[in-house]
Design a protein that fits this description.
The chain has 205 residues and is of the alpha/beta class. 55% of the residues lie in helices and 10% in strands.
């Protein structure tokens, strides 16, 4: 499903994706509220969502969709790479943040990867997040974590879910959740994305 308040962009993206093998565009919408209504009717696997739209913005729409359709992947596609938008989108549970200068073939691949559960971020977005992390965690060095928590942190940085981490470490999901909570608290981080960036920046991979 394609959501964008500019008709030309919305229809253009929908047409391009409709030509790609294995991709079917089940609906489009011009604002966040309409996006929720259409998605609840069509149950798309992946939603390409603009950020700034009338009636209801893309971030709030993404939050609603993640709550109402947990299996739906929301991939932000916008011209804005402002830190505030990026962090808000990630907190909303989106599967990535891409910019509209993406070539058509790469956009189609992004849709397929999102459907496969792979988070994706534009390079400029990653830089924004790194800058935010630098401000949140100014002190560098080995984190004050247990060996098991460092293992969990490394797996988070590799994109593993709590269930996948639990399976690899032979522990329960509840135990993993406790580890993740302690890691975020000890390092002063807001979410898994910042934890992943912390791991990369500190050479823990």
């Amino acid at each position: 499903m394609v959501v964008d308040d500019q008709a030309l962009i919305r229809e253009g993206i929908a047409s391009l994706l409709g030509l790609e093998p294995g991709i079917e565009v089940v609906g489009t919408a011009a604002d966040g509220r309409a996006a929720v209504e259409v998605a609840l009717t069509t149950s798309p696997d992946v939603v390409l969502m603009d950020v700034r739209m009338p009636v209801l913005d893309g971030v709030r729409a993404a939050e609603i969709l993640r709550a109402r359709l947990p299996s739906c992947r929301v991939l932000m596609l916008t011209t804005f790479d402002d830190e505030e938008y990026v962090l808000s989108a990630l907190r909303a549970g989106t599967s990535g943040y891409l910019l509209k200068n993406l070539p058509a073939r790469e956009l189609a691949q992004a849709v397929r990867l999102a459907h496969a559960g792979v988070d994706q971020h534009d390079a400029s977005v990653v830089r924004r997040l790194a800058e935010a992390l630098d401000r949140a965690v100014p002190a560098r060095g080995r984190p004050d974590l247990t060996d098991r928590e460092i293992e969990v942190l490394r797996l988070i940085a590799r994109g593993a879910t709590n269930r996948e981490i639990a399976s690899q470490l032979y522990v329960s999901e509840g135990t993993v959740k406790n580890h993740v909570s302690h890691i975020l608290s000890r390092l002063g981080l807001r979410d898994r994305t910042q934890a992943a960036l912390y791991a990369r920046e500190n050479g823990l991979l």
